[in-house]
Amino acid sequence: MSSKRTLVLDKDQIKQKSIRIAYQILEDNFEEDSIVLVGIAERGYVFAERLQKILQEIAPDKGFELIKVTIKKSKRSLEASIDTPIETAKNKVIILIDDVLNSGRTMAYGLGMFLDIPLKKMRTAVLIDRSHHQFPIFSDYYGIKLSTILKEHVEVELSEYDQTEDAAWLS
Question: Which class is 18-150 in CATH?
Fold first, then answer.
């Protein structure tokens, strides 16, 4: 892997893309009174918190619940937990959120948490979609689609988690 890092998104672009994703979520779910945002720990959850704040500002009459999913990514089988009772999402629209969509494994594991309860619909939102899908998971809402080679790495830095200025890097 190269030590050279290329800036893909700066803090202003991340903010702009987040606002656009929030508006897309609202447009796609305008008839819903409540939407459940499911953030995949850690950066996906931070991104979900940001989306929740934006959504509450632009649609204060709607409810936006937040669930944190923690996935053991090193495991070959689903090992995950959530911080809220699963019934919170029952018969609702849920948006599964992460920072980067690469192979789709993490999102597929996140989806697995909700297979045993009825949902109105499930959508996915990511800041960066790398399009290297090995699982049948695709982003419904995304900030940017990025064509990369498999050896390249995309890293998102979010101030709340990384204690640094927001940025997305390709290395």
Answer: alpha beta
